[in-house]
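Input/output pair, single chain:
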Amino acid sequence: MIDNRLTMLSMIERHGTVTAAAEALHYSPSTVSHQVKQLATELGVVLLEQRGRNIRLTPAAHSLLSHVDVMSAEWERALADLDAYSTTVTGSITLSAFSTAASILLPQTMRALNEEFPHLATQTIEAEPSECYDLLLAGDVDLGIVAVTTDTPAGSDDRFAQQFLIDDPLDLMVPLDHHLADRSSVSIADAREETWILGRPGTTYHQLVIANCASTGFTPRIGHYANDWNTGTALVHDGFGVCVASRLSRSQDLHPVRRIPLTGEHAPTRHIAAVTRAGAQDRRTIRFALDLLTRETQNVMEQLGRDLGDR
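Output:
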């Protein structure tokens, strides 16, 4: 119900350029530019101004978007209120998550939604955290599971409602015959002399490990780059170095290695949250999914911890 041109303007604010906003919304840059100019003409104000090669939003645009955030949240709350007057839940719900969470959490969540609301259509979109926020703003996703980082919107961002789910520890992965393999736990500093397998520069995985190693006083010697946990673990299995992997991932099941819990002040951890558009968290289907995810993520992490302790 919110004018799509306002969504375009919001995406320009989020990404900084018309081109990036158009890519996030699956439009051409010329379409986004034309639509925003048309909106500005109708409102009688300037919304974008050129600064060298860059575009920036005017004070009028920022003022407009502050009202748009309120209107969007109120619309979502109105939909939540209407749930009380419907006896049969129909329509659809789309869930999004990064790959590890998508594979472990989303299938069972959709199955439970289908059992509780048999007339509801469910869909999954696998997406990286930053893309989840774009999909939410564009209205393509109703609930996203994200790893919260310094690059994702803050919990205080008025456009979103974020619900903490779990802390997902990163464990050290070493070959089965490695000199640390018999340890029940290690600190990240214990691997300072190892060859490391990290995600590519610029990825959250890379930044997290580099920052935690730096906090301990060393820079890891990087031998290989692998963004996927399975690829990294395969390289560890064949003796090419060590890596850290999310506890949620079960990459050691495919490539046998020794998974060792990291302890200490500088042990890297991912903070996992569920995110919806502001106001949407109280819609019947979304609230059901949020409550289920809160329970199931805790159960999964407790079971993984037990499995790790039983080795």
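The first strand starts at residue 48 and ends at 51. The chain has three domains: 4-63, 88-166+271-310, 167-269.
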